[in-house]
């Protein structure tokens, strides 16, 4: 299958096919996106045509956009997403943690954070090419996502971004970045990704820029998420009933505890 996923009508139902070889977060988004298409199925004749004759994905840009909005809302419902995101300060770790919580990709998550105006920080994913780093994407508030932006580190030797790559640690500091050949002094937090071939950087937005310059490469004062108590039974999930239905929710604690011998037997 050439596409990420597709929606196939089957009798009165639909079947969503997803590519097996994609990361789970990507599959989640594609699945939610295809669910979005079911809302248009009855009203747009062109899609029916697709189901009869063609396996090609249709390219109705408006509908694609709406399905992406629907997918973001399904996977990261505004109310609960805002509540959780507000517990974090913008940082590479925070973005990764929120993405883990919602099982969404970094890009989908940062777009949601910007879309809901929750964070005023720019995020950059750098990928290692030989000994150099190139920007794979940049996500800026109000400007969306740009792949392979004309962005570079001013001076690799003194760069905290490179330091994060070389030493696998988180760095915080001021440094020069060039964007479209213009130099800009930025306050950057950089963290090495688990596969150690990529660095995720968070560039403070204007409102978050510290008034006092921070010493470069000091991993101190990282914003930490709030701590949560374990509310599950050790599985990482807790189930609850509401309006007669059963729901499952993720336990937000960092560590889970099994409670078994608490209840006295008779
Ligand atoms: Zn689509
Ligand atoms: Zn727990």
Question: Outline, from the CA principal axes?
Answer: globular
Tally of strands? 11
Measured between the Cα atoms of the first and last residue, the distance is 59 Å
Helix content: 25-40%
Which range does the strand content fall in? 25-35%
- Oligomeric description of these chains: single chain
The low-confidence runs, each spanning 5 or more residues with pLDDT under 50, are 48-54, 207-225, 261-265
DSSP summary: helix tally: 7
Strand order of the largest sheet: 5-4-3-9-8-7-6
Q: Give, in order, the helices and strands.
A: EEHHHHHHEEEEHEEEEE
What radius of gyration results from the CA coordinates?
Answer: 22 Å
In short:
This protein has 266 residues and is α+β, with helices and mostly antiparallel strands. The chain has helices spanning 24-38, 45-53, 61-75, 78-85, 92-102, 106-115, 160-167; strands at 5-10, 13-18, 122-129, 132-140, 144-147, 151-153, 171-179, 182-192, 198-203, 237-242, 245-250.
Which labels suit this protein?
alpha+beta; two-stranded antiparallel sheet; binds zinc ion; 11 strands; Beta-Lactamase; 7 helices; seven-stranded antiparallel beta sheet; 266 residues; disordered C terminus
